[in-house]
UniProtKB/TrEMBL annotation:
Protein name: Iron(III) transport system substrate-binding protein
GO cellular component: outer membrane-bounded periplasmic space
InterPro entries the record matches: Ferric-bd, SBP
Taxonomic source organism: Bosea lupini
Gene Ontology terms for molecular function: thiamine binding; thiamine pyrophosphate binding
Length: 328
């Protein structure tokens, strides 16, 4: 496990091109993204303020549907997207393995630790969205460890997204089983303790906030935002560490405007792009950008090690193992 202050530098602090360079970047650009509509539009507006000659359009949906659309277009021989900005690096690794991505060789990653971005420079992390524990404030047990969720106090009181239906949940499962003592035995204990594995993050938050369940596994920003609005919830970054998805961005090899696509990637991973992520309420991965209100100091958050390429290879076995535990 490594401190967030050291390892969660999941974006680049590149200086943006000079005005004359920006002026030379033009044409149409199509972005496929899983960002919320508001965030996607804000991102495009900020990019266009620096590159006014680029006409950007976007298609927005959840990562599975975005990928289904892209796959159908690839099958038809007519992929429309230039840039892909989705939830997880494992999906990007799959596209990389298929030879679908274009390397951005000039991206300067020298300031960041090895293993943060794709070493072949085919995808780059843009945010840090961790998964931890949410609990209702009326709960007697205040969890500090993942292992607390298997205690008697949490029996029949834990809900979590299923990795069979969520890429982020699969990354979380692979990360925990690869780092917690006993590996898969942790999930076996959760099943024995009556854990419910179903629903998306929003539903997990609803169940915990209403007291239907007392505990949940969930992405960080949702309960932190709702607590600020008065919801009776607390969010915990467990002491063993957390998993993270990094909303990576990549350029499709089939891009009709690779120069504009590279400019968008550079913006997203620049200091300015990272400041925008902060304004949108996310943890910016850039080490010099502050965290949103409600978060602890960067050094207080630990990231568990995660290898996207290995996770891609391990996913079929992980899916089978989880299914055997929770659905067998």
């Amino acid at each position: 496990m490594r401190a967030l202050a050291i390892t969660a530098v999941l974006a680049l602090g590149l200086a943006l091109p000079a005005v004359d360079t920006a002026g030379a970047v033009e044409g149409k650009l199509v972005l496929y993204t899983s960002q919320p509509n508001t965030d996607a539009q804000q991102t495009i507006d900020a990019f266009k303020a620096k590159y006014p000659k680029v006409e950007v359009s976007f298609v927005r949906d959840g990562t599975p549907r975005v990928m289904a659309k892209l796959r159908a277009e690839i099958e038809a021989g007519a992929p429309q997207a230039d840039v892909l900005l989705i939830a997880d690096a494992v999906t990007m690794e799959g596209l990389k393995k298929e030879g679908r991505l274009l390397a951005h060789d000039k991206a300067d990653v020298s300031a960041f630790p090895a293993g943060v971005h794709d070493p072949a420079k085919m995808w780059f992390a843009t945010k840090l969205i961790t998964t931890g524990i949410v609990y209702n404030t009326k709960a007697a047990l205040k969890p500090e460890s993942w292992l607390d969720l298997a205690k008697p106090e949490a029996k029949n009181q834990l809900a979590m997204p299923s990795p069979l239906n969520s890429g982020a949940a699969m990354i979380h499962t692979i990360t925990l089983t690869g780092n917690l003592p006993g590996g898969w035995s942790f999930y076996e204990k959760l099943k024995e303790n009556g854990t419910l594995a179903a629903g998306a993050n929003g539903d997990i938050l609803r169940q915990v906030a209403t007291g239907e369940k007392l505990y949940g596994m969930i992405v960080d920003f949702m309960p932190i935002r709702e607590k600020a609005k008065g919801a009776p919830v607390e969010f915990v970054f467990p002491k063993e560490g957390v998993s993270a998805v990094s909303e990576p961005v990549a350029i499709l090899k089939s891009s009709k405007n690779p120069e504009a696509a590279k400019a968008l990637v550079d913006f997203l991973i620049s200091k300015d792009g990272q400041e925008l992520a902060l304004k949108q309420g996310y943890v910016s991965a850039h080490p010099d950008v502050a965290l949103p209100a409600g978060y602890p100091a960067r050094g207080a958050i630990k990231l568990m090690p995660f290898d996207a390429a290995k996770a891609l290879a391990d996913e079929p076995a992980a899916r089978k193992r989880f299914s055997a535990i929770f659905e067998g």
